[in-house]
Each structure stands twice: as C-alpha cells, then as structure tokens.
Design goal:
By secondary structure, the chain is an alpha+beta fold. Helices cover 29% and strands 31% of the residues. It is built from six helices and seven strands; from the N terminus they run βαααβββαβαββα. The chain has a seven-stranded mixed beta sheet with strand order 1-2-3-4-5-7-6, sandwiched between helices. Helix 1 (12-18) packs across helix 3. The protein is globular and about 40 Å long. The two termini are 13 Å apart.
Length: 176
Amino acid sequence: MLRLRQYKNCDAEIINDWIQDKEIFMKWGGSHFGEFPISARIIDEKYRMNNGDCVEPDNFYPWIAINEENKVVGHFIMRYIGGDNKLLRFGWVIVDDTIRGKGYGSQMLRLGLKYAFEIFGVDKVTIGVFENNEPAHNCYLKVGFKDKEVVWDNPWNVIEMEILKSDYEGNTMVEK
C-alpha cells in the first residue's frame, strides 16, 4: 500500500532521473521548465519555499508516493484552479519507469482523490492525458475520471478528463 507525503528538496534527484528521455519530459510538462535535460536544481527551485525543504502550500501541492519498502515510486502535483478553491487539477503524474505495471499509478491517483475530495473539500478534479498515452488514459479511467474533451496541445492532442465529487462518492472502483 502506498502513502503520500509532501515533496522535499531531496526528491528532486529522484524525479530528475525519471525524466531524462526528452519525449517523456516534453509530455510531462517540459514547456513549464524551458530546458532539457532538466536538472534537479531547477525542479527544486520550482517546488520549494525560500526557507528550505517544503513547498509553499497555498495552492500548489507536489506529492511523493512511497511504497511499503519506503522507496519513492511516484510523484504528482495537485494545483487549485480558479479563485474559489473548488476545482483541483492533477498534473505531472509520474511513476518510476522501472516499476511500471504494478498499480502504483492507480494507487497514487486514488489517494490523491481521497485528499482532494475528503480533506481539501473540492467539487471537481481535472487531469489531462496525451492522446497517444493509452496506458495513462486507461489508468485514469480505472480510478473514475471521465473524458471531457480533446484539445490540441502542440505537439500532442490532450484528452481533458474530470471527476466530480458525486462521481467519486458513488464510484466503487475508488478505494476509500
């Protein structure tokens, strides 16, 4: 079983190791960082507060997923969209390439939805997935996200997905 914890600056090196493939880097949000290869220093500067280890918690929550052996296995971000803090977006969902296919992505998303709906009290969570990333798309569908629309996000089409709090509460696939 996974657990989540807030990002710490010691996680930057691990995340950096996962995104050294340029195509993967671009899919996971390279336009937000502006350089490849990305460095752990840049990831850390993007995420941490001025005084050290944790990020500013106002509207941006990077999480690290840790497995039962205390190994960091994944990372994702929750970010409020809009001024009323009722809409949350998940982004940069990354699972360690060496352990893909073991259900860690689904577990991370389920925990994230639990935090979003039960702790943060949002009404809706959105996520985007590249059209050519069928494994990720299937993972998002499995935990309850529904396709909303396809948008062009050069160079790939993005499927915008969402899950409403009412869908989450009635979803038997989501482990609570």
